[in-house]
Specification:
Layout: E1 14-16, E2 19-21, E3 25-27, H1 39-51, E4 56-63, E5 76-77, H2 81-95, E6 100-106, E7 122-123, E8 127-128, E9 137-140, H3 143-162, E10 167-172, H4 178-183, H5 198-201, H6 203-216, E11 221-229, H7 239-250, E12 256-261, H8 264-267, H9 280-283, E13 294-296, H10 303-311, E14 317-320, H11 322-326, H12 330-335, H13 350-357, E15 390-394, H14 398-410, E16 413-417, H15 426-430, H16 440-452, E17 457-460, H17 467-472, E18 477-480, E19 484-486, E20 508-509, H18 511-515, E21 524-528, H19 533-544, E22 549-552, H20 568-577, E23 581-583, E24 586-591, E25 595-600, E26 606-610, E27 613-617, E28 620-622, H21 625-631, H22 634-639, E29 644-647, H23 657-670
Parallel strand pairs: 3-4, 3-14, 4-5, 4-6, 6-10, 7-9, 10-11, 11-12, 12-13, 13-14, 15-16, 15-18, 16-17, 18-29, 20-27, 21-22, 21-27, 22-23
Antiparallel strand pairs: 1-2, 8-9, 19-28, 24-25, 25-26
Helix pairs in contact: 1-2, 3-6, 14-16, 14-23, 19-20
Bound molecules: adenosine-5'-diphosphate and iron/sulfur cluster (SF4).
Adenosine-5'-diphosphate (ADP) binds next to helix 14.
Length: 688
């Protein structure tokens, strides 16, 4: 197939100063949890995007001096020649596939704490670290510090050129970069030539940009990543005022404008809060003010909106971070007329949690991400089958669907048996929660792809399997993907041994009951000892259904773990907005007919909350009865010719949807492969 000519415009080359991008697909800088600690993993992940057709592929933010670093985050570094050698590997890997290599030099200013170098962070004014609660304060830079900062940035630019980068960014975005600290009236309280008036506050940004342009001297392109709006109203930069003034002042200086909103929570807002193109109101004005190419993001996942972004003249490049993680081959798929094969990002921000947890990022839609180097997983290629074996996959949730799909692509004969009429398992339930409709893509992408493999993958709906029917089904391998169910007894993190007294009463429900259509009596207490999205999402749903809802959680905030996905603040703000009563720092100690007893986790003593029903969101139990019924009957398995029975997904250990997808994918990759050693992947050992 070839591409639809309508999309030709997306494949036009674009000049960025002295270099030419082969098309308009641009992977903007994004972190990945690998960085300088796992450079080969990072490079291999980026190289997939270059191979997938992206014209520009950038590193994440790249610290250029120990005076401004991102520890404990494992960000890329260009501190000295040793780093140049490492980053040359990065640029070689990316450029081998015809992409331009970009990097985003940064000093995190007063945002972070220099935990590795132990240097006191730099800022325009004395200030506590702004991105963390680390007990660290930045010092106010004097004029010598500013001169020294500019010198070290110039030297870093030379190192970036030496390392082979085609595009070097000056960074003034996300409220985590020193030039933005200086620009911000909130952060800059200076009274010298670098503080006070707009001209003074923008001085450092202008100087650093001029230094960079002068230093590269036309050898490579210079980009400016600039946050036009902080979404803080008059408390911050707004696009109508100083955002616009910066563009006007610096319009011709950089070769490329990369514009977005600040901070990261807003820039990478999840699909719960924003939809495609959500940044356009704040950046659309830029193209009219500059002659240089403009790139912007907005979680553009569909070729149609990408096309519209360009044809409406909003930007010259389609900037993507998350869409390029979910599908590194978007450009190639558009090029080849395979739009239906695009694995669209669902906006769940599980990728973001990798950065916060300092581990290789995971993706709900793309199980191969982070595994490109250490396990050799390619997002679009998979080994042909290792035998003429056949596999029965039991359960068509995310684990079973991904498993059947990947096995089918390998060429195995696969049966996918699902108890219900609908495929998708928990995804089909959870995508009905407020704001989570895009999550259905996990199911829909796989269901559609499996249909295309109908010659090898047979789907059996309404087929609840028992040990007997599995034994009779005639497959050589069995993958049990039967998922999990929420506990009703309250056992979880706070109640570890004994159930919550009264939890066996009929007015105590679980999320499974709600998804099955049970309407709890109002008022309802939702007890959240799970701490991710389920508790708060159910609260929002039930409140939306007109019930009076009280959220009780032992954590200090609602949906505590959602912080890792940049969602906690938005989730709790939503609950406050809709008038939900939130009782934090309290554990559920007893359930009675007309209410519950709760006790403060800091010893505040017990009190009661009146309610007519309770929903327990504490932990889940794997549905593993079928697995054990088969595993515990080895003679019957042998008689039936079944060589292996395995569990995948939530049936092993209930967790993220991303983990279930990954688990199903792993099973498919490893079938008939040599047994992995004790450490089933390559490691990047620092000391060898
Ligand atoms: P995971 O996240 O691991 O994929 P889910 O709970 O989303 O798990 O999906 C499990 C799926 O397995 C559900 O669609 C469920 O209906 C199905 N299932 C559970 N038990 C059986 C069974 N015995 N036979 C067939 N399908 C089953
Ligand atoms: Fe998109 Fe979620 Fe994958 Fe991130 S983890 S790229 S938000 S699908």
């Amino acid at each position: 197939m070839t591409r639809d000519p309508r999309f030709d415009v997306l494949f036009e080359p674009v000049q960025i100063g002295p270099v030419t991008a082969r098309n308009r697909f641009f992977q903007v800088p994004h972190c990945c949890g690998m960085g300088h600690l796992m450079p080969q993993s990072d490079a291999a992940m980026r190289s997939m995007k270059a191979e997938g057709g992206w014209a520009v592929v950038c590193t994440e933010q790249c610290s250029f001096s120990p005076l401004g670093e991102a520890a404990p985050y494992p960000e890329t570094k260009l501190w000295d020649q040793d780093d140049v050698i490492r980053m040359r590997h990065w640029t070689d890997t990316v450029k081998a596939h015809g992409a331009l290599a970009g990097t985003e030099l940064i000093n995190n200013g007063s945002a972070l704490s220099n935990l590795y170098s132990r240097e006191i962070p730099l800022g325009p004014s004395a200030s506590p670290a702004t991105y963390t609660y680390d007990p660290v304060q930045a010092r106010a830079m004097d004029l010598d510090d500013i001169r020294e900062f500019r010198r070290s940035h110039r030297d870093a630019v030379l190192r970036a050129v030496d390392a082979g980068f085609d595009l070097i960014y000056v960074y003034c975005a996300h409220d985590i970069a020193l030039p933005m600290d200086f620009l911000s009236p909130r952060r800059n309280r200076r009274t010298d030539a670098y503080g006070g008036s707009f001209e003074n506050r923008v001085r450092l940004l202008r100087e650093v940009l001029e230094d960079t342009v002068e230093t590269v001297n036309g050898s490579v392109a210079v980009g400016l990543r600039f946050a036009t709006d902080e979404l803080l109203g008059s408390d911050g930069i707004t696009w109508e005022d100083e955002g616009c003034k910066v563009i006007e002042l610096l319009a011709d200086l950089p070769d490329l404008w990369d514009v977005n909103v600040s901070d990261w929570i807003h820039d990478s807002a999840s699909s719960r809060f924003t939809s495609e193109g959500h940044q356009e109101p704040y950046i659309a004005f830029v193209k009219g003010m500059v002659k240089k190419p403009v790139v912007c993001v907005g979680r553009y996942t569909s070729p149609e909106t990408m096309l519209s972004l360009i044809t409406r003249g909003v930007a010259d490049f389609v900037g993507c971070a998350r869409p390029s993680i979910a599908d590194p081959f978007i450009p190639r798929k558009i090029e080849e007329g395979r739009l239906d094969d695009i694995r669209e990002c669902i906006g769940c921000n599980i990728c973001v949690t990798g950065q916060h947890l300092k581990t290789p990022m995971r993706c709900t839609q793309n199980p191969t991400v982070g595994e490109e180097w250490r396990r050799g997983w390619h997002p679009e290629e998979i080994d042909p089958r290792g035998s003429d074996s056949s596999v029965l996959v039991v359960g068509a949730g995310p684990a079973g669907l991904e498993c059947a799909l990947a096995l089918g692509r390998r060429g195995y004969r696969v049966g996918l048996a699902e108890a219900t009429r609908e495929l998708g398992g928990r995804v089909s339930d959870e995508c009905t929660l407020p704001g989570l409709s895009e999550w259905a893509r996990v199911r829909d992408y796989r269901t559609y792809q499996i249909e295309k493999l109908h010659e090898v993958v047979e789907v059996f709906r309404e087929s609840e399997m028992t040990a007997e029917t599995v034994l009779e089904a005639g497959y050589r391998h069995v993958a049990i993907a039967t998922g999990s169910r929420w506990r009703k007894d309250g056992i979880g993190r706070w109640h570890t041994a004994a159930p919550v007294p009264g939890s066996d009463a009929p007015h105590v429900l679980t999320p499974n009951d709600i998804f099955a259509g049970t309407v709890p009596a109002s008022p309802v207490v939702v007890f959240d000892d799970d701490h991710f999205y389920m508790g708060a999402s159910l609260v929002e749903k039930l409140a939306g259904d007109g019930l009076e809802v009280i959220l009780v959680t032992p954590a200090a905030v609602a949906a505590a773990w959602a912080e890792e996905a940049l969602e906690q603040h938005g989730i709790q703000s939503n609950l406050v907005k809709i008038g939900v009563r939130i009782v934090t720092g309290h554990n559920l100690t007893r359930i009675d007919a007309g209410g519950v007893q709760v006790a403060g986790v800091y010893g505040e003593g017990e009190r009661s909350i009146e309610c007519a029903s309770v929903v327990m969101v504490t932990s889940r139990l794997p549905n593993d009865a079928l697995y054990y019924a088969l595993k515990d009957a080895p003679d019957r398995l042998a008689d039936a010719g079944i060589q292996s029975v395995s569990r995948i997904g939530d049936a092993v250990g209930p967790g993220l949807i991303a983990a279930a997808v990954w688990s199903g994918h792993r099973f498919a990759r490893e079938l008939d492969a040599p047994p992995p050693g004790d450490v089933p992947f390559k490691r990047e050992l620092v000391f060898v």
